[in-house]
Amino acid sequence: MRTSAAAPRDARTCTRTFVHRASNARRPRARAPSASTTRGGFQADERVDVVVVGAGVIGLACARELSRRGMRVFVADRAPAVGLGTSARNSEVLHAGMHYAPGSLKADFCVRGRRMIVDYCEKKDVRWDNIGKIIVASEESQMDDLEAMIERAMRNDVDDLELLSAESLREYEKNVRGFAGVWSPSTSVVDTRELMESFRRDCVRDGRTSISLGDEVVEITPAGRAMYRVKTKSKVIAAPRIVNAAGLHAHRVCERMAEVYDQVATPPPPLYFARGLYCTLKKGSGAPFQRLVYPLPRHGGLGVHFTKDVFGNCKFGPDIEWIDEIDYTIKPERVSAFYDAIREYWPELPDGFIRTAYTGIRPKLINETGDEDEPGATTDFVIQTEVDHRASGVVHLFGFESPGLTSAMCVAERVCELLE
Ligand SMILES: Cc1cc2nc3c(=O)[nH]c(=O)nc-3n(C[C@H](O)[C@H](O)[C@H](O)COP(=O)(O)OP(=O)(O)OC[C@H]3O[C@@H](n4cnc5c(N)ncnc54)[C@H](O)[C@@H]3O)c2cc1C
């Protein structure tokens, strides 16, 4: 069993604490900033136009776009290198956009974001592969779901899906069995590491952006009108704008802005964690499929699917396990359920074919039961701005699970529009 360090505190606890503060603060009570936090009342190591908290794929995409638009940006990440969070623990798929509710941020960002990333990869020579994906309905009873997905795709402007019979499924992938399926020719994979490295290079090239690594943001306080004092482990930064792109820790960063949030109108959405395990193939095994192969989605995830990265490395996963805190533990006992899930579309999967590899954690804004009546619960991404929390120039990004990678450049564009 491999275990990596769990986060020091339960982020759900943080959320609860935070919501409590927020409700106290709904009274229209202006908090006078203390002398040490008024404009000019503190010594800043740097003054910038925007601080971005988090150098994952979304934080980097935001920093790059803000910088391109002429802003001086300071990016802080507590990790020793960029992109070591969720951005390093995913399927690396550029989704086409058939899975998301029409009109949702996920649908909009995914469909436009995929095209933006593909154009970017072409221009910058970042590895990507237009590998395509097959979605399998293993039984006749799943046909309604398959048809609903096609209908949803059309409404999301994804018009290249092709319905496959059981026979054509086998022609596409000789190992796949199913009642019917869908072929998505525009689903692709990208080298996430290379993409983030390219964003990082773009950020620092023009000299307007600096990226401070191993540098956790520990406190954000108001410092006069429309100005914030951002304290990291190593510096104090003054900035009128903040982008909270801290991924799984975005709620905790909110907590560290408690003063900024004293007049909050809408608290952050509830937060839950759903861990996903990936498995690779036994050493020496050949790829069972040429393309990506998915079952139909289920609550919380897209199902245990097969992906092949730009280097030809194959994996199955992720599964879904609801957990209480950020904890990347790998549980070997979960592998047996992988066999059942994969055999729904590949009945000939041999015993002993897969090995545990790594886990990723989805920041969920809806609980395991899918209870949409819970205040603030949603399956969509949430972007909170001044309209929600009354702190000018502050943008929070919550719930950026899949398709967050695909959406990154589109999210960046939206964040810039909100801050300009
Ligand atoms: C299992 C799984 C599979 C997925 N598969 C796909 C997929 O195939 N396609 C797709 O489009 N999307 C996928 N996603 C979603 C995608 O990976 C995420 O949406 C994306 O990586 C989120 O990027 P981020 O920058 O918001 O978060 P992260 O990459 O987690 O970055 C946040 C950063 O903030 C830093 N940070 C946190 N707190 C602080 C602090 N106080 N101070 C400074 N820094 C801080 C962290 O160190 C981290 O580097 C998947 C997600 C999961 C979990």
Automatic annotation (TrEMBL):
Catalytic activity: (S)-2-hydroxyglutarate + A = 2-oxoglutarate + AH2
Start and end residues of each FAD dependent oxidoreductase domain: 49-418
InterPro entries (alphabetical): FAD-dep_OxRdtase, FAD/NAD-bd_sf
Oxidoreductase keyword on record: yes
Alphabetized UniProt keyword annotations: FAD, Flavoprotein, Oxidoreductase
Gene3D superfamilies, A to Z: D-Amino Acid Oxidase, subunit A, domain 2 (3.30.9.10), FAD/NAD(P)-binding domain (3.50.50.60)
Keyword match Oxidoreductase: yes
Transmembrane residue ranges: none
Assigned EC number: 1.1.99.2
Region listing for Disordered, in residue ranges: 1-40
Cofactor: FAD
GO function terms (MF aspect): (S)-2-hydroxyglutarate dehydrogenase activity
Pfam family, one: DAO
Family to which the UniProt record says this protein belongs: Belongs to the L2HGDH family.
Protein name according to UniProt: L-2-hydroxyglutarate dehydrogenase, mitochondrial
Source taxonomy: Eukaryota, Viridiplantae, Chlorophyta, Mamiellophyceae, Mamiellales
